[in-house]
Amino acid sequence: MGIHPEHPFATPEPERGPVRRLRGRLASTVTLWTAGAEPGRAGLPVASTLIADGEPGRVLGLLDPESEVFDALTASGTFAVMVLDGSQQRISDEFAGLVPVPGGAFRNHGWTETEWGPVLVGATTWAGCTVENTRPCGYGELVEGVIRYVELGEAEPLVYHRGRYRTLG
Questions:
Q1: Cα torsion at 18, 19, 21, 22 (round to 10°)?
Q2: In a 3-state reduction of DSSP, which class is residue 80?
Q3: CA 27, CA 122: separation in Å to the nearest integer?
Q4: What residues are paired with 129 via a beta bridge?
Q5: Mean pLDDT taken over the chain
Q6: pLDDT of residue 1
Q7: Which of the 8 DSSP states describes residue 157?
Q8: pTM of this structure
Q9: Which long-range contacts (CB under 8 A, 24 or more apart) does 45-52 make?
Q10: pLDDT at residue 29 above 50?
């Protein structure tokens, strides 16, 4: 729980454009994208993640082109995508920069270094990916990755809808 019930610098909903307000009405699973290796690890919660089945399968996500994770994944050519569960709201907030984290967001949680990037110890569902393509898309950068490895679990996902976290249960 933070000091403010909402992000103190968030634009009030009536002042947001109609496209942004439409996007907010789409419930989205919260994923954590990570890339790089120590000391250049980076991560970002991403609610705009889409999985495309095929041979090979692909993951698409809209990332902030000025984010550290975008720089890290384009430099390394690899990244990991974890599905956060309902108990991991704090982790999402830490990587979003919404709560103070002395020493950085990677300090508070256990991490396993993989060939695709750091993976949260205990992550139940995650994928290791290679960067296929990036291109501008709206205010973000559309990242297309090829899924090289998948680990599946059964935890209830953390969902983001209209500026709030929710769970399915």
A1: 110
A2: strand
A3: 24
A4: 79, 147
A5: 88
A6: 36
A7: B
A8: 0.87
A9: 45/84, 45/91, 45/92, 45/95, 45/96, 46/81, 47/160, 48/140, 49/81, 51/147
A10: yes
Quick check: helix, strand or coil at residue 67?
Answer: coil
Number of C-beta neighbours around residue 168 at 10 A: 10
Hey, which residues does 59 pair with through a beta bridge?
51, 145
Specify the residue for token string 């270094």: 113
Place of tokens 């000391």: 39
Interatomic CA distance for residues 158 and 156, integer angstroms: 7
Q: First CA to last CA across the chain, in angstroms?
A: 21
Structure tokens at 59: 């993951």
What is the full DSSP assignment across 93-110? HHHHTSS--TT-GGGSS-
CB-based contact 80:114 (threshold 8 Å): yes
The yes-or-no verdict on residue 51 having pLDDT over 60 is yes
List the structure tokens of 98.
């919404």
- The closest alpha carbon to 159, from 16, 8, 24, belongs to 24
Percent helix, strand, coil in the chain, to 5, is 20, 40, 40
Grouping H, G, I as helix, E, B as strand and the rest as coil, residue 100 is: coil
